[in-house]
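Annotated sample (chain length 198).
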Amino acid sequence: MPPFETLLAMIGFALAASATPGPVNIVGAMTGARYGAARALAFVTGATASFLVLFLAFGTGMLAGTGWILMLARPMTVIGSIYLLWMAWGLARDDGMVERQGLDHTPGFWSGALVQGLNPKAWLAVFSSLSTFVLPLANRGTGLIVFAVLFGAICWLSLALWAWGGARVGQRRMRLFNRLMALALAVSVAWMLAGTFM
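Output written by the structure step:
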């Protein structure tokens, strides 16, 4: 088990990475605004599961000394950024109307998994948290599992709160909300790209 101070640092990092605005938080808020908080929980769960798969897969690879894993960071950041900017464009063009048949197309588990899997913020969080908190530990395997449990719980709760917050937006304000979220999504992607390549 990691020392208590390390656990507190892990919790603080997971909270900062999960709760601060980013592409998945914004899409979660949009899903909550459009379909309600309860319907958004499948998206939230898919995004959390996808993050944990990334975290455990790359954590296991790093512990095994697989250096090629680090080479995936930049290409995945570019691919994810293109996908997220396409989503932002779609949001900006959306008229904000929620039609009854649209409720059948609520973003679900697999949508959450895809968006998170292509989320540059998730990739950056995975690599930085593993190198900062897990690799320095004496018992890296236990540290990886403990951090995954902490990160998973914090990630799910943070995304659920974003969805709940989005659900508080009234129908009359949906078009403005869509455009603000599209702008926030584009800005967060640009910020992450600048941090990756500058």
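Annotation: The chain has a mean pLDDT of 81.
Annotation: The CA atoms of residues 72 and 179 lie 32 Å apart.
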